[in-house]
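Thread amino acids onto this structure.
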């Protein structure tokens, strides 16, 4: 399970909404795509990212915060 979300603030300390994105990775580890997703929390983002695994690895991020890596399913 990922860590609890840290306080989401911008450089000036203002609250910011989550900025979840799924990174699609080739077998070599290189980035082949990035998909922003609109979800409410980490749990929903994790479920959405898991569903995107298909022959390639997937990483889930919220801004600069790494959440989880999902290996490819063959």
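Threaded sequence (74 positions):
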């Amino acid at each position: 399970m990922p860590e609890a979300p840290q306080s989401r603030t911008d450089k000036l300390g203002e609250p910011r909404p989550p900025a979840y994105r799924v990174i699609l990775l080739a077998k070599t580890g290189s980035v082949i795509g990035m998909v922003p997703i609109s979800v409410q929390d980490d749990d929903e983002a994790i479920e959405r990212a898991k569903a995107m695994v298909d022959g390639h690895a997937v990483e889930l991020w919220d801004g600069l915060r790494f959440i989880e890596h999902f290996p490819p399913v063959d």
